[in-house]
Structure formats: structure tokens, C-alpha cells
Amino acid sequence: MSQFKRTLLGRLTSLLLSGLLVGQAITVTAGQQDDRYEPGRITYAHFNKDGQLLIPRNYREWIFIGAPVTPKDMNDGNPAFPEFHNVYIDPVSWAHWKQTGKFRDGTIIVKELVSVGAEEAASGNGYFQGEYLGIAATVKDSKRFADRPNNWAYFGYDSYESKSTAPQPDESCNTCHKENAAEDNVFVQYYPVLRAGKPEKK
Ligand code: HEC
Predict the structure, then answer these.
(1) Which protein residue has the closest C-alpha to ligand 1 atom 25?
(2) 151: CB partners within 8 A, 6+ apart
(3) How do residues 74-84 score in pLDDT, each as one tens digit?
(4) What domain of life (predicted)?
(5) Does 148 contact ligand 1 (Cβ within 6 A)?
(6) What's the pLDDT score for residue 195?
(7) Where are the domains of the chain?
(8) Is the CB of 177 inside a 6 Å radius of any atom of ligand 1?
(9) Is it true that domain 38-197 has CATH number 1.50.10.10?
């Protein structure tokens, strides 16, 4: 066999193998993510028959959009949501946001709570993330939450041990979001990634 043919054969084999591997990786991820397909859309927000949101498990593989921090020492020891908030949006809603600058029906945004750990590091004094504390989430759905302001419902916060969680009353969460958030209930003003991803107005 000529050197050329051998190289070509080698390339083809590795291409085939990597194709198989990618195929497998996608199947595995899809299995883990449990992202079910509903007619007409892929959704990352799943509910049980009582209308409770199943606590999302794989959100650390979604799009990270920002990390507000409300430290205890600046909030009389008791911030509403302690302390770092690592915020993620599901990938299909991110793609939709980049295209349209809107939150699609079915959007889910998770905020993961992390304690302040160290307050000094080799880089200087500051707030450095400590331990995971739990999560909160919000879902926009015009059918399921037809009566909620801007069709968003709010969940949390919960420990990782809980399997599902019921929507909160509007007064507890939605009202503040609707009044103070920059866009459609979401605090886009604190998420540089969302601002950067938003398409220019034509
Ligand atoms: C008094 C105002 C206020 C109330 C009440 C409130 N939030 Fe928020 N929420 C905020 C602000 C401000 C942010 C962004 C900054 C931050 O995380 O500190 C935010 C961010 C979020 C986010 C990330 C997505 C987004 O919209 O920016 C989720 C999820 C969330 N809150 C859930 C809840 C839940 C669940 C409740 C009710 C239990 C709740 N919030 C009550 C002010 C509020």
C-alpha cells in the first residue's frame, strides 16, 4: 500500500471512530440531561403530574450568564438568597435569545447558590466561592403559567436532595422581578453574557 493510501485509510478510520464516539457522547449526554421533546419544542423544564418542577440536574452544562453576589456581611447576616448566585440559561433558549433578543416559551433559568468561602487569596482580598447551598429557578411558559405576570413562575430555593418543587406565589417572587428587572422579568442588567449575546436592533 502506498504511503498516501495508508495515510488516507488512517484518516478515514479515525474520522469514523471519532464520529462513533461523538454519536455516543451525544446519546449519553441526552440520557443524562433528560431533555424531553414536546411536540414543536425541546424543553429543559420538566414537571411532575402535580405541576411541580423537577429540580434540574445538568444545568452546569448550560450557558453561564453571570454571578451576582449578596454576601452576608453586607446584608445583616441574612441575604434573601445567600450568597453567590451562579446563573445559567438552557442552551436552546440561549440560541433563541441570540437570534431574537427575547426569552422563548419554555425558557428555564437556574440560579445556583454558593457560599462565600475565603475572603483573601493570592490575588488579593475579595469574595471567593465556597460551598454549594442549593438552587432556585424560573420558567416562562404561556400555557402552564398563563395567569402569571409575563408567564414566568418561580421555584426555590431548594436543597439538592429535593426531587421537585412547587411554584411560589406571585407576591413572593414575580412581583419584584416584574417591577425591577430590565427585560421581561429577567435581571439582564446584571448578566453581561446576555447583554453581549443580544442581537443589535436592525
Ligand atoms: C425584592 C426583589 C426580589 C424578590 C422578592 C425575588 N427576587 Fe429573584 N432576583 C432578584 C434580583 C435583583 C436578581 C438578580 C440579582 C441577584 O441574583 O441578586 C434575581 C435573580 C433571580 C433569578 C435568576 C434569573 C433572573 O430573573 O434574573 C432567579 C431564578 C430568581 N431570582 C428566583 C427567585 C425566586 C424563586 C424568588 C421567590 C422565592 C425570587 N427570586 C424573589 C430580586 C428578587
Answers:
(1) 186
(2) 105, 140, 141, 142, 145
(3) 999 999 999 99
(4) Bacteria
(5) no
(6) 98
(7) 1-33, 38-197
(8) yes
(9) no
